[in-house]
Amino acid sequence: MLLRQLGANGPTVSAIGLGCMGMSDVYGSADRAESIATIHTALDAGITLLDTGDFYGMGHNELLLHEALSGRRREDVFIAVKFGALRSPDGNFIGFDGRPEAVKTYLAYTLKRLGTDYIDLYQPARIDPKVPIEETVGAISEMVKAGYVRRVGLSEAGSDTIRRAHAIHPISWLQIEYSLFDRGIEVDILPTVRELGIAVTAYGVLSRGLLSGHWSKERSQQAQQDYRGHLPRFSGENLERNLSLVEALRQIAQEQNATVAQVAIAWVLSRGNDIIPLIGARRRDRLNEALGALDLHLSKEELAQIEAAIPADAVAGDRYNPEQMAMLDSEKR
Q1: Counting runs of H as helices and runs of E as strands, what totals does the chain give?
Q2: What is the bridge-based pairing of β-strands 49-53 and 78-83?
Q3: Start and end of every NADP-dependent oxidoreductase domain (predicted)?
């Protein structure tokens, strides 16, 4: 397993991380036994980074990880946890809470559900516009000093917020969407984190399945049954346009004797040693396919061919609906 460093002076983790959200939430029901087997397969393959959130399945994901990690050495796993999303009993997202007292309360419940004494990296899932980031990060910093948290991260934060947070406590990584379909961070955010020595954990590297190579118009009905049915990229002409881009990528993948997903992941890996893609695999076969990207070494010419097939502004539709886009500090201009 390739390793990558978190920030200028941070620890090393696997070059690919396992995002566990889909095992509990958003994409419909998942098989518990298969989810645990997938986590075990990831660990056995050398993946050390596991990414979760306390609101994934309203605590279900943390409990699942606790079960999957039973009998494993705690120090062999880097657990990253997002917090702050508020959800109603019907599963709807109803806001964010970044108050210092809320931060500490969320952490207390997370430690209990995961059955651990500390969290390797703790981060707000979104930036609460009602609470100065200095207060949110300051509370996490207190938990670092108390020994409950090792490192501080941010998610979907813009450059100004990143700088303000980093002035309060060193930020180890920014978690943000980054893929062939989402390259907006290259303009301002990526230069900022590189200036500050902050790593990037890239989620959505397969654009919620669009770049997996397994999607089709026939599967669009499935998208209507989970939250993708509310995303602009999965509807109407947008979907047709985006799938045509995937077919262009498929031709390149075939020349590499690789799958579309492997090429998409390998492209993200190629963007720098400070970028760590998160793979949201729920099944062992999808995980093993993703791991194959580590063996795919793309030349400058091949990377240029990929980017010509999918230009930075080619994708149709925003990554979230308008209400969710408005919640992203990273999208503020």
Answers
A1: 12, 12
A2: parallel
A3: 15-309
Cα distances (Å, whole numbers) of residue 210 to 233, 240, 249:
9, 11, 11
Backbone angles phi, psi at 209, to 5 degrees: 110, -20
Residues 10/80, Cβ–Cβ less than 8 Å = no
Quick one: tokens of 299? Answer: 């030349």
CA-based nearest residue to 100, from 60, 70, 130: 130
Q: How far apart are CA 312 and CA 317, in angstroms?
A: 13
Active site residues: 56
Q: Which structure tokens are listed for 89? A: 């009993």
What is the per-residue burial (b if ≥16 Cβ within 10 Å, else e) of 92-113? ebeebbbebebbeebbeebbeb
- Nearest Cα neighbor of 50 from 140, 134, 117, 114 is 114
Q: Tell me: the pLDDT tens digits for 28-60?
A: 678 899 999 999 999 999 999 999 999 998 999
Residue 142, classed as helix, strand or coil, is: helix
Amino acid at 221: Q
Residue 216: closest CA among 256, 257, 250, 181: 250
Q: What is the share, in percent, of the chain residues with pLDDT greater than 90?
A: 73
Burial of 314 (0-12, 13-18, 19+ CB in 10 A): middle
Two tokens at 177?
């969407």
Rounded Cα gap, residues 131 and 129, in angstroms: 6
| H or E element, residue 35 | helix 32-44
pLDDT tens readout for residues 104-121:
999 999 999 999 999 999
Residue length of the chain: 333
Q: How far apart are the first and last CA of the chain?
A: 38
3-state class (DSSP) for residue 124: strand
- Residue 207, classified by CB atoms within 10 Å of its CB into exposed (0-12), middle (13-18) or buried (19+), is buried
CB 171 within 8 A of CB 188: no
If DSSP codes are grouped into helix, strand and coil, which group holds residue 120?
strand
CA atoms within 13 A on the CB side of 294: 20
